[in-house]
Amino acid sequence: MQLTTTFIAVFATAFAAFRGAEAQGFGVTCTNPVLSGSILTATCGNGHGGQTNSALDLNACVGLSGGNLVCQSNGDFLAHGCTGCSLIDVVISCDCPGFTFITLDECVTNDFGLLTCS
To answer: Which residues form the Cyanovirin-N domain (predicted)?
Structure first.
């Protein structure tokens, strides 16, 4: 019984560590990020040695608060007047109406190849 309990504990710890390694800021495990309007696309590692092309509407993850871009579920930042957004590496910058930026690794994760909101 002790061996079974130990095995389960080791397996659970290893799975949690593996899952935590995959569900991280997309900048670590994704390449070729492109921003088109509010749509972020990238090629992301799927945790099994493969790559997945993924897309995410950032309106689902990014909002505007006090004139600053923030991580916010269903934030719909473009509807709040943000324009001229661009992406450099993992940083998105916009005119909202003042210039603001946010590091998307704070708001977007790679979950086994799929871009998701954090």
So the answer is: 26-115
